[in-house]
Amino acid sequence: MQDFIWFVNYLDGGLLCEIDQYGRQHMFAEIKKDMVRYFGMSGHGMTLCYDVSSGIFNLEGRIVEFFYLVGGKEYALTGQFKLYNDFITYKQATTDLDPINGSTVTQIQKYCFGYKTHLQINEVIFYCCCGWLLIGIWTVYWQLKGMDR
């Protein structure tokens, strides 16, 4: 049993979850990327997601946008006219092995979800990786991979 599972809400109202209501596991490759409205994680009574058309996160009703400020100039990294549909999701886990009886116990410590994107705003090109790392309830992770002028 996992604390969080990824999910997608499609534009037509359909839903695909990592583990559905019948206990069937779905593969990340099943996601129809061009038809997704929201991508996120659900668990512990929480829904954490982002709008694929804007890259803007909704964390339990808290709206989060990202900006990059350099030299007094502010660049909006969310809300651009593009699809933020290069999804990221992964888990960090450990497995303990009992060498005597061969049994294993696996525990997931961290869950991550978000997106990768490439943006050109005026003369500046951004390569961004934006996501939320869930440890316990949640811890924030944001990474700007690089920037070219």
What do you see in this structure?
This protein is mainly β and about 150 residues long. The protein contains no helices and 12 strands.
Task: Round the mean pLDDT to the nearest integer and report it.
Answer: 87
Rg from C-alpha positions? 18 Å
Low-confidence stretches: none
Question: What's the β-strand tally?
Answer: 12
Order of strands side by side in the largest beta sheet?
A: 2-1-3-4-5-6
Coarse morphology: globular
Helix/strand/pairing class, anyone?
A: mainly beta
Task: Please give the alpha-carbon distance between the first and last residues.
Answer: 46 Å
Order of helices and strands: EEEEEEEEEEEE
What's the layout of helices and strands?
Elements: E1 5-10, E2 15-17, E3 36-43, E4 46-51, E5 57-59, E6 62-64, E7 67-70, E8 73-76, E9 86-97, E10 104-121, E11 124-134, E12 139-148
Antiparallel strand pairs: 1-2, 1-3, 3-4, 4-5, 5-6, 7-8, 9-10, 10-11, 11-12
Short description:
With 149 residues, the protein is mostly beta strands. It has no helices and twelve strands.
Features:
149 residues; globular; mainly beta; 12 strands; six-stranded antiparallel sheet
